[in-house]
Each structure stands twice: as C-alpha cells, then as structure tokens.
Design brief:
Layout (H helix, E strand, L loop, with lengths): L2 H10 L5 E5 L6 H16 L3 E6 L17 E2 L4 H10 L2 E5 L10 H5 L6 E5 L10 E4 L6 H11 L8 H14 L10 H12 L4 H9 L4 H13 L1 E3 L4 E6 L1 H6 L22 E8 L4 E8 L5 H8 L3 E2 L3 E6 L3 H13 L5
Helix pairs in contact: 2-5, 2-6, 5-6, 6-7, 6-8
Length: 335
C-alpha cells in the first residue's frame, strides 16, 4: 500500500461505521482467518463490523474466535441484504472479482459505498476504492497483518486476532512448505507466537479433527486416483454418489488434491468433484515447479488462482469433464 492509500483507509476508519466484511464463496482457512481477524480488529476501533459469507464454511473452522458471529447469505438472504444496504464501508477479502461471491455478487454490485479489497490473487478487478493486492504473499492473512501495521495499530493485535491470522497463513502455505512462504512470513508467525497463540492446537483443530466418514471418503478418493506418468499428472474424481455414500460435509475434501503431488515425478494434480444440486463439477488444481495452474484454469475451466494453486469449474458431466482434461493434458507440456 502506498501513502495515499494508507491515508484514505485511515480517513475511512476515523469514525465508527457499520462495516461489512465479505469472504469468497466456499471460504477456506485463509478467507475465514482474514475476515475474522479484521472483524476483531475493527471491533477494537469501535466500528460495527459484520461478516457475511456467501455460503457456509467448513465445520473444521467453526472453532475460530468469532466464527459464531458470521452470517451466511444463502441461509438468510433478506436480512443479509438489509445489512449490506445499511453498510457504510465494505471489505472484500481473499478474492478480487465479485463473481467469486456467487449470488451475493448481485447485491454487492448495487452498493454505492466504498470498497476496500485485500487479496493475493492475480489480475484483480477494478471495483474497490482501495485495492491492496500483491501476489507475492502466500496468504491474505499475512496481508492483514501488514495492513494493520500500515495503520500503525499492531499494538491492537491480540491472541484472538493472532489466532485467526495464523490459521490463514498456515493453511494457505501448506503448513509453511509452499514457495511463497518467506522469511517475512516466519517473522510474522514468530510475533504471533510471542502473543500467545497456540500454534500446535490450531494445527490440531484444522488437520487432526477428522470424522470417520471423512477418512473413509479420503480412502475412496485415493483409490480413485489416476496417474498419467508420461504427462507428470495425477487426478482424482469423486461422484455425487460417492459423496453421499460417505455423508459428505463441506470441507471434507479440503487438501485431498495435494496427495497427487506427493507421488515421485508428478508435477500437476487435479481433483474433480461432482455437485449435482449446483449442477457443477468443482475442480482444484495444484502444481509444483513452474507449471502455471492459474493460467491453465483460466484458459480451460473458467477459474483462476495462483501459479501453483487454482480452482475451476465445469457444467458438463463428470465423465465428459475428465475426458476434456485428459485431452488437454495430452498436448500440454508440464515441466
């Protein structure tokens, strides 16, 4: 952020306001961590912040401080729309295009109040008065820490705020193993640990609180894995029938795509998940090295994200989507 943007934000936050905070649809650890961290921070500045999530978030994030205060647009559209229409300022976190909020986009597009975007994805849209966008960061949560420091308010970061920030940094960095994890990331984390956050307990809450059904679904996903060694690619497909068989809950497939990259010689992994209620195939892509899955997803599957992590979608059948994927991979050079 430059000095002009920092001054603008300070002016916008100079007096108490009704502030809406919006994560992307199907929020992950970074989206929830950044929105909740900002929520607690704005409370300390005497604002009236409200988080409105486009849809529900995974159960394994429900323990986070303030998660019980989050409103879900899909569950109460009338009330959420009223709150948004009364908001004096809107923060959008961990996404940079309003269509990432699903149906909520139609409400947000009608608002005339200032927007502040904080995000680390590529090619941001131009809808915000202040855009703090930087793809060099591995998480929006790390940017939230910097955002608070730009406002000269780091003294207000407490254990609750730190816990939320740490959660997003940890999950979006692959537990600090992705290339975007820098020395600055570790310095931020060190500061949060000094504040008293329980880093090992946060990890346990995210990764070690599995249900029996979730582990059974993981087993099926690994059984379904296909490996294309000649193309350095692996992929997993899960049908709606399989999700139903193991009583799928939101978040149960989080991180499953990464297993494909643990195979020696595999540089590109994908997972295709059928959701009949939404009439969509949800896709996640991961890569290691120089293969750009953000570009791949944008070109072929109406998605986007980062160089090594992106999402996409298909409105075709699961089998046809996989056939399309295999056809593309056959002519794609993967390093």
């Amino acid at each position: 952020m430059n000095e002009t943007e920092i001054t603008t934000v300070k002016d916008l936050l100079a007096r108490p306001k009704k502030i809406a905070i919006i994560p992307h649809r199907s929020p992950d650890g970074d989206a929830m961590g950044s929105t909740l961290a900002l929520y607690h921070f704005l409370l300390k500045l005497n604002h009236i912040p409200i988080i409105i999530s486009p849809n529900d978030f995974p159960n394994f994030l429900a323990w986070m401080p303030g998660a019980d205060k989050v409103l879900v647009y899909e569950n109460d559209k009338v009330n959420c729309t009223k709150i948004l229409n009364e908001a004096e300022l809107v923060f959008t976190l961990d996404f940079n295009a309003l269509h990432r909020t699903g149906e909520l986009e139609h409400v947000l597009n009608k608002l005339t109040v200032p927007f502040i975007m904080i995000d680390h994805h590529q090619k941001p849209d131009n809808f915000a008065l202040v855009t703090y966008s930087n793809t060099a960061f591995g998480s929006t949560c790390e940017m939230i820490y910097n955002f608070i420091s730009y406002l000269d308010e780091t003294s207000r970061i407490d254990k609750n705020i730190g816990t939320c920030i740490y959660t997003g940094i940890m999950t979006d960095s692959g537990s600090f193993r992705f290339p975007s994890t820098t020395s600055s990331t570790h310095r931020v984390v060190a500061n949060l640990i000094d504040l008293g956050i329980e880093n090992s307990e946060i990890h346990n809450q995210i990764f070690d609180s599995n249900s029996y059904n979730r582990l059974q679904l993981l087993g099926r996903a690994l059984q379904n894995m296909k490996v294309l060694p000649q193309h350095k690619t692996s992929y997993i497909a899960l049908s709606q029938k399989e999700l139903d068989e193991f009583h799928y809950q939101k978040g149960d497939t989080e991180g499953v795509v990464n297993y494909g990259l643990t195979i020696k010689g595999i540089h590109f992994a994908a997972i295709f998940i059928e959701h009949r209620e939404e009439n969509i195939i949800k896709i996640s892509f991961r890569s290691q090295g120089s293969f750009d899955v953000n570009q791949f997803s944008r070109e072929h599957f109406q998605g986007g994200g980062h160089i090594n992590a992106a999402g996409g979608k298909s409105y075709d059948t699961l089998s046809n989507t996989i056939k399309k994927f295999e056809k593309i991979i056959a002519t794609t050079e993967i390093e």
